[in-house]
Design goal:
The protein is α+β, with helices and mostly antiparallel strands. It has a single domain (4-121), classed as S-adenosylmethionine decarboxylase. It has two helices and seven strands. The protein has helices spanning 22-34, 81-92; strands at residues 4-14, 43-45, 50-55, 58-65, 68-75, 95-104, 117-125.
């Protein structure tokens, strides 16, 4: 089995609400709660409902459109996924489903294969 080269949390939300400043709040809170390290200021477009922060370990991104939310946290180091999901629910509300995957780089010439998800299907309404 190839060595794990990254950990990837993908979350989809429904019934979410995005108020001014929420995207910046999420990017900051998710980074602090997961212990990841910012290397550049966040890029945020409140008008387009999108934000991205580059971290030493990779990136955290969020997009909110018409009551739907899409979040992505990718890191070369393991991180507490429950903290990131809690930040999404606490800031944007709604219902979130997520998958957490170990990523790997297959050697050249190998048939690419997805590494099995280690946790999948977080789904619970916010408070």
């Amino acid at each position: 089995m190839p060595a794990v080269t990254g950990y990837h949390l993908i979350a989809n939300g429904a019934g979410v609400t995005c108020r001014p400043g929420d995207i910046a709040r999420f990017l900051l809170r998710a980074r602090l709660l997961t212990g990841l390290h910012k290397i550049a200021p966040p890029l945020i477009s409140e008008a387009h409902g999108q934000g991205l922060v580059l971290i030493a370990e990779s990136h955290i991104s969020i997009a909110i459109h018409g009551g739907r939310g899409y979040a992505d946290v990718f890191s070369c180091q393991p991180f507490p996924t429950k903290a990131a999901i809690a930040a999404l629910k606490g800031i944007f509300g709604g219902r979130w489903r997520s998958g957490y995957f170990r990523r790997s780089a297959d050697p050249p010439g190998a048939t690419p294969a997805a590494t099995p998800a280690i946790r999948q299907g977080h789904s619970a309404p916010s408070k």
